[in-house]
Design a protein that fits this description.
alpha+beta, Multidrug-efflux Transporter Regulator, Chain: A, Domain 2, five-stranded antiparallel beta sheet, three-stranded antiparallel beta sheet, 6 helices, disordered C terminus
Length: 207
Amino acid sequence: MPEDLISVIDLAAKCGKRKTTIFKVLRRLGIEATKMRSAANAGQVISYITDEEAKLVVEELSSGTSFEEADDKQSLELKPEQGVFYLLALEPEHDPGRFKVGFAVSLPERLRQLRCSAPFAKVVRSWPCKSLWEKTAIECASVGCERLHTEVFRTSSLDAVVARCNQFFSLMPPLSAASQAPAVENGAQQRDAPDRQQPASPPVAGR
């Protein structure tokens, strides 16, 4: 894959919408999703769009236009999706300070999506998370870091980033440990992966 891709399933979860709603927005914007088989979903065909297209979808959803079915008696808004907030070292050997953070319903699937654009990425740590917490968690994790892209930053200490994330998630309501998908490498194992939310670490001086 030449670009970072996100599945329609993951985007729907992040936005708290049904997949059908996301597809309606895609049709309105004239965006055609790329369909590929996913090993993480038993070989099922999954629809993907680029990160830039995902931004357009989010902007359209924020415009106030209703894309919900008028005849649906039930609310089509989903409860905040539960998954993981991940911290990836993108090039641990050559650029150890460059990292990516974000939310994913399935961490193994997200790693597969990044396989071409970030072949050396390794999971540093992940935490059980709700999709609605993502933006705040990113702001917390990236304090004092150089922003390189929407979810990509550079720091002088990944340990400091981990400590800030530990502190953030120690303040959030506990979630089921089952929500945390096991890390499946691009060829990398998760480093010191927790089975549950981590206790707060001592404050680390900002970089």
